[in-house]
Amino acid sequence: MSESAIITIIISGILLGGIYAVVAQGLNLVWGVLRVINFAHGEFLMIGCYITFWFVTAYKMSFFITPIVSFLLLGALGFCIYIGFVKPMLGTEDLEFNSLLLLFGFSLIMSSGARVAWSPTYRIVPVSYGSLQAARLSLPLNYLLAFGIALLVTVLLYLFLKKTYLGKSVRAVVQNKDSATIIGINPNLVYGVSFAIGCGVAAIGGSLISLIYSIYPDMGFPFAILSFCVVCIGGLGSFWGVFLAGLAVGLVESFVGAFAGAEWEPIVVAVLLLGVLQVRQILAR
Amino acid sequence: MLNKKRLAIACLAILVAAVALLPCYTSGYIVAFAAIVLMFVVLSQAWNIFSGFTGYVSFGHHVYFGVGCYVSAILLSKYGISVYLSMVVAAVAVALLALIISGPTLRLKGAYFSLSTLAVAIAMHVLSLNIPGLTRGGKGITLPPEYHLLGFFYVMLIFALISIGLAILVRNSKIGFAVSAIRGDEDLAASIGVNSFKYKALTLILSAILWGIMGNFYAWYVTYMHPSDAFHILRLVTAMVGVLMGGVGSIGGTVIGAIAFGFLNEVLWARFSTIYLILLGIVVVLIVRFAPDGLLKGGQRVIQKIRAGRE
């Protein structure tokens, strides 16, 4: 394989990985703060894709507005799901099992709802910015644009967690819920906001993914698995760990896709997830 | 007390006999429907034997079903072996697989365990799509197209009884005491000398064998096998909701829950086939939200609340 081909594989791996990192960051927030695994994470992403598709095709909106729209709409949906269903469950026995099933139920509702409402056809968002030619390499600008927005969202999320009052209270609640309550932080608000932002970030990831892949109602589940994998590799609750893990998973997937064939790509995530859990287990001993 | 017990056994015997005689007085549709409900009784009970008893939530049990499907699909279509012989092969294959999987996964805790089992199932699903030499990949395998409804129905009935018997046997044996200790507090159980890994692996293998055997007969019955049918995660979720409706860990509750959810599932499918999955999702959400400890206890709670409201 020629040198430029390998460089292309590396670059596209990193660009995809940056988007994976943002998607996983949403799951990281929900899992890390609420100790609830959002099984519907991929479906929030899928609806984000469709929001971008419909706003660009039906309402002739500029692509750049659609990530914000998806974030707001699905963040609101996430908040409602939190208030109505997740909140009463927190602190009960079997939280892990029950929340897993609950959110699996929501993922069923959302994916099959999308299939009924928008048909199972594959769709492509008609946004293309051509490609960048540099030193015998050809880089599609869609990838670069999606990666750029992903980086921006990562930085914004980091600033939110580090600099704002709400972000600081999120971290305080993770560290010690009781002490945080004593100094006047409302843990319920923190949980709700974290859940909403987690879902909203997944939706932004969806808007970005729709620049690269074609979209269909069942596309979400693999991205949920991917996010579980990235969060486990990066370490639950570790912001930059998850970011780096996203890049790494993107790279590995890109190499496996190029050398073993695209049909083997879905297995990468599963094998990585198993491997990482083993390594963690051995290190913990 | 003894009389009550005898009465209950007599009632159950009459019930089983009534179900067994279903093909004599109802249509094929009802028999096919009952067979599938009975299959879910087995799947739920088997899942309960492992996850309900030990507290380790397996999210990858459909891998055993899928492997069972493929064992019988390959043996029946390529070598023309009898389904009962392939049942033995499927049981052995699935037991081996469970043994292999148990090593790396059973030492993980909580959500990490669930995710690792899910990862195994996904890996096997992708593998079955990508080794066409053995599984014919996405084309699927066509089995000898014969009509097996009656056979399937009776096999399911027998295995439903076997699974209930096995669950009772496990619960009242040393294994049962060990796993209930593990469910309560694994470290404490280990500290008083319970070999926790051994008992977890044992229940996992028992439960996997039942799933594998169900897959074996399912492939024989539907006569066509495809990776997305064999490894369908909805089958696992249906079994899990059956257990949840009855009350996790309860043997009788699981039977009732699986039957109740099987009926609901079929009615939804028959009446509203286009929005079936949406309704199924809504049912799952509502059950988890309002009756996470079983419909019986959930119903009691609601009645208590209404009474308290009146006073």
Overview of the structural elements:
The complex is a heterodimer of chains A (285) and B (311). Chain A is mainly α. Chain A has 11 helices and 2 strands. A two-stranded antiparallel sheet of chain A has the order 1-2. In chain A, a hairpin with a 2-residue loop joins strand 1 and strand 2. The radius of gyration of chain A is 19 Å and the shape is globular. The mean pLDDT of chain A is 86. Chain B has 311 residues and is mainly α. Chain B has a domain of 201 residues. Helix content of chain B is 82%, strand content 1%. In chain B, strands 1-2 form a two-stranded antiparallel ribbon. In chain B, helix 3 crosses helix 14, helix 5 packs antiparallel against helix 11 and helix 14 packs antiparallel against helix 15. The longest helix of chain B has 27 residues. Chain B is globular. At the A-B interface, helix 4, helix 9 and helix 11 of A face helix 6, helix 13 and helix 15 of B.
Tell me the layout of helices and strands.
The complex is a heterodimer of chains A (285) and B (311).
Chain A lengths: L2 H32 L6 H17 L8 H21 L8 H24 L12 E4 L2 E4 H23 L1 H11 L1 H6 L4 H23 L10 H15 L4 H22 L4 H20 L1
Antiparallel strand pairs in A: 1-2
Helix pairs in contact in A: 1-5, 1-8, 1-9, 1-10, 2-3, 2-4, 2-8, 2-9, 3-8, 5-6, 5-8, 6-8, 9-10, 9-11, 10-11
Chain B lengths: L1 H19 L1 H4 L2 H27 L7 H18 L3 H23 L4 H21 L1 H4 L5 E2 L6 H24 L1 H11 L1 H6 L4 H27 L1 E2 L1 H4 L2 H14 L4 H21 L4 H15 L4 H16 L1
Antiparallel strand pairs in B: 1-2
Helix pairs in contact in B: 3-8, 3-11, 3-13, 3-14, 4-5, 4-6, 4-11, 5-11, 8-9, 8-11, 9-11, 13-14, 14-15
